[in-house]
UniProtKB/TrEMBL annotation:
The chain crosses the membrane at residues 59-81, 93-118, 146-166, 218-238, 245-263, 283-302. Belongs to the TMEM19 family. Residues 12-40 have a biased composition (Basic residues). This is DUF92 domain-containing protein. It comes from the Eukaryota. Residues 1-53 are annotated as: Disordered. It is a multi-pass membrane protein. It is found in: Membrane. Keywords: Membrane, Transmembrane, Transmembrane helix. Its main location: membrane.
């Protein structure tokens, strides 16, 4: 009894009679199965870690589902689409929508729809003033196929690359930033231009800072610039809420949009005046590509 008490005091407990370790009762087959699980489980965890989630761009959703969803949206939204696009432009927009839905899933698709809605509505602001001054968009503001790709070229390229690099989350994060930045840039430019033509009190040429009539290529106004900046910020915030970018990415998109629209104004005031090749749609394509590249390069440098 004294010896048992001494062992208890030193923290050594006597095993209960008849109790043995559980592993000693394992059959050879069960022991082999356990060893196999220990070997296979880490490999399965590694595969699961590499597998893209359903929210990851480039996750390659079923093509049939993409086509059905996009076609349904265009079918039910056709009356609204006609207000801002020509019939041929609607067909081209369908192709753009298919690429974006496949590459960036529902979140990216909603952003494209939001851009179209906001961009169409803002062209109607101050329509009477624009018509009187001759600055209202041609064809009642309806966009042509060239306008569709001038606005969505960079977004389409980002979507195609997202599909090409499916599963590489590091690349996909950059492509999402580039995608959002391209649309934020175009929306900022559209809002700045339309608000400037309707409400701009003083419009100056970006190169000389001299007053010019509203609607002049390369001209900017305080009202339009602020409206464009707010539009890009709101759009970037929406993209964050939809999970396309993180807060840092949203801020980068706003900065890239501001710089790219400034570049567009400079091109409009200089090179576009001397070249017949640089149409508004071509300049728009250069602008959104610049916004996308600036955003991706900045995000890469910061992360």
């Amino acid at each position: 009894a004294g010896r048992a008490a001494g062992l208890e005091s030193r923290g050594c407990r006597r095993k209960a009679p008849g109790r043995t370790r559980r592993t000693s009762r394992l059959t050879p087959r069960r022991r082999e199965s356990r060893q196999r699980r220990k070997h296979v489980t880490p490999q399965l965890e590694e595969l699961d870690r590499r597998r893209p989630s359903s929210a990851t761009c480039g996750a390659l959703p079923p093509l049939g589902q993409v086509l059905l969803t996009n076609s349904s949206v265009f079918l039910f939204g056709y009356p609204a689409l006609r207000s801002g696009l020509s019939n041929l432009a609607i067909a081209h927009s369908w192709m753009l929508g298919t690429l974006v839905l496949a590459g960036f899933q529902a979140g990216g698709y909603v952003l494209v729809c939001a851009y179209f809605v906001f961009g169409t509505l803002v062209t109607k602001v101050g329509k009477k003033v624009k018509v009187e001054e001759g600055t209202f968009e041609r064809n009642e503001g309806k966009r042509t196929p060239a306008s569709v790709w001038g606005s969505g070229f960079a977004a389409a390229v980002c979507a195609v690359l997202a599909l090409a690099f499916a599963g590489d989350e590091a690349v996909c994060r950059l492509l999402r930033v580039g995608f959002v930045a391209s649309l934020a840039t175009k929306l900022s430019d559209t809002v700045a231009s339309e608000i400037g033509k309707a409400c701009g009190r003083t419009t100056i040429l970006i190169t000389s800072l001299k007053p010019v009539p509203r609607g002049t290529d390369g001209a900017v106004s305080l009202e339009g610039t602020l409206a464009g900046l707010l539009a890009s910020a709101a759009y970037a915030g929406l993209s964050w809420k939809l999970g396309q970018v993180n807060p840092l990415g949203a801020c980068v998109c706003v900065i890239a949009a501001f710089l790219a629209t400034g570049l567009e104004s400079w091109i409009g005031a200089t090179l576009q005046q001397e070249s017949s090749i640089l149409t508004n749609d071509v300049v728009n394509g250069l602008m959104i590509s610049a916004g996308s590249l600036i955003a991706m390069a900045t995000m890469k440098a910061l992360t």
